[in-house]
Amino acid sequence: MIQLGEHLPDSTLYAYSNGDGACPIGPDAFSVRERCKHKSVVIFGLPGAFTPTCSERHVPGYVAQAQALFAAGIEEILCVSVNDAFVMNAWGNSLQVGDAVQMIGDGNGEFSAALGLIQDLSARGMGRRSLRYALWVVDGVVKHIAVEAPGKFEVSDAASTLAAIR
C-alpha cells in the first residue's frame, strides 16, 4: 500500500464530460502524476458508482465540503472508482457534483492496484474494486492517507480529510 511521503504511481486515469450537450469522442486520458504536479489535491477512492454508501454519503460529503477544502488550499478534488469514465460522468451528473468534484474512471483498476488499494468483491458480483480511501497529495507526494476497513465509512469522509489538511 502506498505510504506517506511516497509519490503517486504514474498511472493513466480517464475523465469524460459531455459539456454543453455536445457528443465528443472521449474519454480523455491523463497521467494522474502529471495532473497532481504543482498542486494540492484530494483523491478519494470508493468501490463503485451508484452503490449505496458511495452515492448517499461519500460523494455528497465531498460536494458539501468542497468550498471548505478549496479554502484550505486544495485545488482539485478527484473521485476515483473502478468504473469507466462514462459511468463516472453519468453518476456525477445524477449526484449534481458540478465543478466541486471531478469524477474519474479507473476502469481497469490499474491506479487502484498501483496504490495497493484494490479488493476482490467477486463474491458479491462486483469483481476487483477500489478500497474506500482518501489521499491528500501535494505536488504528487502523499501527505495524508486514510483507508477504511472493509464495510466501514469512518476515516475517508470529507470532514476527516479536511481536519487532516488543517
Architecture blueprint of SSEs:
Blueprint: E1 12-15, E2 28-31, H1 32-35, E3 40-46, H2 52-71, E4 76-81, H3 85-95, E5 102-105, H4 110-115, E6 118-120, E7 128-130, E8 133-138, E9 141-147, H5 158-165
Parallel strand pairs: 3-4, 4-5
Antiparallel strand pairs: 1-2, 1-5, 3-8, 6-7, 8-9
From the structure above, extract its key features.
antioxidant, two-stranded antiparallel ribbon, Thioredoxin-like_sf, about 30% helix, Glutaredoxin, 9 strands, seven-stranded mixed β-sheet, about 170 residues, alpha+beta, Glutathione-dependent peroxiredoxin
Runs in which pLDDT lies below 50 for 5 or more consecutive residues are: none
| CATH class categorisation | Alpha Beta
CATH architecture grouping: 3-Layer(aba) Sandwich
Overall body shape: globular
Function: Thiol-specific peroxidase that catalyzes the reduction of hydrogen peroxide and organic hydroperoxides to water and alcohols, respectively. Plays a role in cell protection against oxidative stress by detoxifying peroxides.
InterPro entries: PRX5-like, Redoxin, Thioredoxin-like_sf, Thioredoxin_domain
Keywords: Antioxidant, Oxidoreductase, Peroxidase, Redox-active center
Family: Belongs to the peroxiredoxin family. Prx5 subfamily.
